[in-house]
Amino acid sequence: MNKYMILVVEDDAAIRNLIVTTLETQGYRYKTAVSGKEALMEAATHNPDILLLDLGLPDLDGVDIIRKIRTWSTMPIIVVSARSEDSDKIEALDAGADDYLTKPFSVEELLARLRVSIRRISYNQGLTEENPVFVNGELKIDYASGCAYLKEEELHLTPIEYKLLCLLAKNVGKVLTHTYLTREIWGSAFESDVASLRVFMATLRKKIETDTTHPQYIQTHVGVGYRMIRI
C-alpha cells in the first residue's frame, strides 16, 4: 500500500470513479468528497498528502477552497477541471494550486502529475537546516553560501537571476505564474515587469540549459508562467 493519502474532490460520479479506480490500482490510499464543504472537512480531519480538486463544485468554487486551505496547509493541490482558459488556470495557480490538469485527461498524465507532487513532498521533507542544498540533475544550489553550480562549475548569476532560480527550485514541479514571480522579484505585477521577467528568464536559461530550444530544467507554460522540472 502506498503511504501517500490523496483527497479526491469531484462531484461527477463517473470521473470520481475513474480517479479512484486509478488510485486503487497504484496502491494509493484515498478519501473522497463531492462538495466544497465536505472537502474542507476531509482536508482538516485527515490531513491528506495531496488534493485532487475539481473547480466546479455545487456549493463552493474550487478557487475559494484553494484559498481557504492555503491559510493552514501547504499540501500539493492539483486542479482537475474542465475550465481550459488561461485566465482560469492563472486564477487557480495564483490562489495557491500547484498544478492544473484539464479534462478530459489521460490516466497516465494524472499519475505523472501525482509523481511530480510526491517528488516535491520528498524533497521538502529532505531539505533541512543541516542540508540546505538543492540538487537537481547537474544543477546545485547552496542556499547557505548563495551560490549555484552546474556540473560543479559555479554559475555567475545576477541577483535577480539567482532569486528566480531559487524561487523555481523551492517550488520544483510547481507552475509559478507570471504574477507570482513578478511580485516576488519586484513587488508588483505590471505588464512591464512581465516583459522584464521574460528577459531575465532567457538569460538564466542561457546559463543553465545546454540547449535553450529544448530546455531541460525550466519549462515554459505559455501565457501562464514557468515550472522547474525535477530530473
From TrEMBL:
GO cellular component: cytosol; protein-DNA complex
Gene Ontology molecular function: any one: identical protein binding
Domain spans labelled Response regulatory: 5-118
Stretches that traverse the bilayer: none
Database matches in InterPro entries: CheY-like_superfamily (IPR011006), OmpR/PhoB-type_DNA-bd (IPR001867), Sig_transdc_resp-reg_receiver (IPR001789), WalR-like (IPR039420), WH-like_DNA-bd_sf (IPR036388)
Biological processes annotated in GO: positive regulation of DNA-templated transcription
Main location as per UniProt: cytoplasm
Family annotation (Pfam families): Response_reg (PF00072), Trans_reg_C (PF00486)
Listed PROSITE patterns: OMPR_PHOB, RESPONSE_REGULATORY
Domain OmpR/PhoB-type residue range list: 131-230
Gene3D superfamilies assigned to the protein according to its UniProt record, in alphabetical order: 3.40.50.2300, 6.10.250.690, Winged helix-like DNA-binding domain superfamily/Winged helix DNA-binding domain
Cell compartments where the protein resides: Cytoplasm
Modified positions (4-aspartylphosphate) in chain numbering: 54
Alphabetized UniProt keyword annotations: Cytoplasm, DNA-binding, Phosphoprotein, Transcription, Transcription regulation, Two-component regulatory system
The protein's name: Stage 0 sporulation protein A homolog
Species this chain originates from: Wansuia hejianensis
